[in-house]
Amino acid sequence: MQYRRLGNSGVKISEIGLGSWLTYGSTVEDNNAVDIIHKAYNSGINFFDTANVYNRGEAEKVVGKALQDFQRDSYVLATKVYFPMGDGPNDRGLSRKHIIEQCNASLKRLNVDYIDLYQCHRFDPETPVEETLMALDDLVKQGKILYYGVSEWSAAQITDAVHIAKERNLNQMVSNQPIYNMIKRYIEKDVLPVSEQNGIGQVVFSPLAQGVLTGKYKPGQQFPKDSRAANEDISKFISGFLSEPILEQVARLEKLAHNELNIKLSQLALAWILRQPGVSSAIVGASRPSQLEENILSTEVELTTDILNEIEDILTELE
Which residues have a Cβ under 8 Å from the Cβ of 36 and sit 6 or more positions away? Predict the structure, then answer.
């Protein structure tokens, strides 16, 4: 496993991180989830990402329980705040009240004294950015969180937050967690450049496009019965990746991975993401330990200029 700095901070995280969206505390049995987290840790993964809203706190409980077996300073634990955690008017968003209360609740569910990376799960247009940043700064000063970041913020929103933090002499954000994969590339236009200018690292989610970039979904064929696409509860998250034109291009990428590099499509997709120096980690999900083994091998894949050009030719046709 290779490690990269989280933005301009001093902390280093594994190039492959393990997430828990749509899996732990939900579709994956708790005991299996613990086994997968242990497999990840023993394979060199030190970055574990979750969120309070994932199955209303259940994912945090599973992740926290699994990590209790390891020395606290040996891993980097990330969670998030923003989405509704109740029915009340203040049970959501990025107000000081919600941030402080949810940080304390996450600490209890995770059963830890501090959170390494606390992330604003989305931008909150109803709360002044100053209020959000000052609350996060207070949590840093209290030692409840070590660093903070955001998720799916635009380049303009990131720039604004950086300037406000500088003006008020507050701790700066160190990360952004956007969707980024061969199909969804919007961050390349301005989010990546703005982040790199301000020392903000990307910890990207859905690097395999909800499993589409593993090659399991074939053009013109029915979806596998045990797949996310066939699961009515979570299929809405993958539907945008399942058009016939996309699946046809994915098939071409899989052929390239197999014929020219003798690797799996998933490994090609992850190596392609990690080619970006602004990416600190690619967060994968896993329902089986074998999936982790395949994903981790992607860190050893080197993509030549010729291969990158071939990939770009295929991806350009997706636009």
Answer: 18, 28, 286, 287, 288, 289, 292
Percent of the chain past pLDDT 90, that is, above it, reads: 78
Cβ(279)–Cβ(287) below 8 Å: no
Task: List Cβ neighbours of 38 (8 Å cut-off, separation of 6 or more).
Answer: 66, 69
Residues in contact with 222: Cβ distance below 8 Å, sequence separation at least 6, in sequence order:
none
Exactly one of 3, 24, 41, 54 is catalytic; which is it?
A: 54
- Joined together, the tokens standing for residue 276 give 């970006």
Instruction: Please check whether residue 23 is in contact with residue 287, taking contact to mean a CB–CB distance below 8 angstroms.
Output: yes
- φ/ψ of 12, rounded to 5, equals -115, 135
Please name the amino acid found at residue 257.
A
End-to-end CA distance of the chain: 33
Q: At what angle do helices 129-142 and 96-110 cross, to 10 degrees?
A: 40
Coil/strand/helix, residue 41: helix
Q: E-strand spans in 34-84?
A: 47-49, 76-81
Please give the residue that has the higher pLDDT: either 279 or 287.
Answer: 279
Tell me how far apart the alpha carbons of residues 302 and 35 are, in angstroms, rounded to a whole number.
30
212-231 pLDDT, tens per residue? 998 887 765 566 665 555 45
Which amino acid, one-letter code, is at 5?
Answer: R
CA dihedral 291, 293, 295, 296 (to 10 degrees): 160
State the DSSP string of 161-174.
HHHHHHHTTPPPP-
pLDDT in tens, 245-278: 888 899 999 999 999 999 999 999 999 999 999 9
Residue 75 bears catalytic tag: no
- Contacts of residue 49, defined as CB under 8 A and 6 or more positions apart, other chains included, come to 17, 18, 19, 20, 78, 79, 177, 203, 205, 283
Q: Would you state the pLDDT for residue 230? A: 47
